[in-house]
Design goal:
Elements lengths: L1 E5 L3 H13 L3 E5 L2 H10 L4 E4 L8 H11 L4 E6 L4 H9 L4 E4 L4 H15 L6 E4 L2 E4 L4 E4 L2 E2 L4 H12 L5 E2 H8 L10 H13 L8 E4 L3 E4 L4
Parallel strand pairs: 1-2, 1-3, 3-4, 4-5
Antiparallel strand pairs: 6-7, 7-8, 8-9, 10-12, 11-12
Helix pairs in contact: 2-3, 6-8
Amino acid sequence: MKILVIEDEVKTSAFLKKGFSEEGHVVDLANNGVDGQHLAETGEYEVIILDLMLPQRDGWWVLQEIRKRRSDQAVILLTALDAVDQRVQGLRQGADDYLVKPFAFSELLARVQNILRRSNIRTDEVLHYADLGMDLLRHKIWRAATPIPLAPQEFRLLAYLMRFPGEVLTRTRIAEQVWDMHFESDSNVVDVAIRRLRRKVDDPFPDKLIHTLRGVGYVLELRH
């Protein structure tokens, strides 16, 4: 899952990035309303975590701009503004949820998961392809009923492949979505990660699922 955090408090944004990354998600950060709105408009995020008291442009403006473009974008307001009328205003202006600081990360994570379950935004709790299964919320992977332990980065990589079965994904696209980095032609980070993933997901089983399209990228596909 890809998450955008728009938050000007450095400690809070670093805490959120660390927490969501440990859960296996990719996190982008913006520390003001203008940059946050630009990322929200140009990127694809399952959830946006939005502070209201931001420099340059406040969170109310950012939320308004997001809703002009997309009515289905999941947005959680995370703010120190705790008055009832402010909460009501946030929800009426289109926020999916409103959490007051200070907060527990476990509660924020639960709210994110609940929003995704309710709105079914580009993800299901469990992904399936052939005999391969993945539980996104419980971080469990199995193939032919055999559990497969994966590191967080491997989990993100496999989840991305499973979201686009049969579609060839370029190294650039994989690097941007899984590692949140720009791919350089002399870098083998994607290839190394794919090899590690194959050792766990493909090598112990007769049917291979992860295939290479030479010079282009990789595809999750069952071939007979």
